[in-house]
Amino acid sequence: MLTLHHLEYSQSFRILWLLEELGAEYELKTYKRDPETNLAPDDYKALSPLGTAPVVTDGDLVLAESNAIIDYILDSHPDSPLRPAPGTPDRARHLFWFHAAQGSLMSIQGVAMVLTLLESRTPWPISALLKAIFGQVRKLFVNPRMDALFGQMEKDLGEKPFFGGDTLTAADITLVYPMFAARDKGAFELGYPNIGKWFDRVEAMDSFKAARAKDDRDSIIFRF
Prior knowledge:
The chain is of the alpha+beta class.
């Protein structure tokens, strides 16, 4: 049986939601972060090939990386609408957002996170210099790319209710972590009504509620 090794406040929430949406049989093993370092415990890092979340085991198989795990699980559910078939109207839209989640959105968020961490943990006066330099990085690289992504999201969600089209797909599931992280930081407070409606639709879904109940945390997002 497939086992989801679920690290609290991590990207493994995606897999938990996926399994609940599929109604799949699985075992859930949860791990708490170290209260001092906020890192995964040693037994989790020893299990994962990369020491990161998410990770699943299935017999002798140990698999990491969110989208690889999602594809692996969906291979066992070929009739699921969570992965539109080739040639269907929403196939390209689904593929774009499924890969944009990791390739674009989380990459940009990662850069922004590193900049913030360096600023907050570097002593003055070096921190003042870094703040000036990083301000330019945000202005020239981070903010324009994030604005472009959010603008495309708002446009697409104005045409159809989900990132993958007319119904929930794995694109929505893989986007849930970076989207909630962005919302937690106030990214959608000024405008983006269609994105706001997407959050409402997601949070109203029984599978999402079931995943949140099993996750049993005040947020699905890990805050540094």
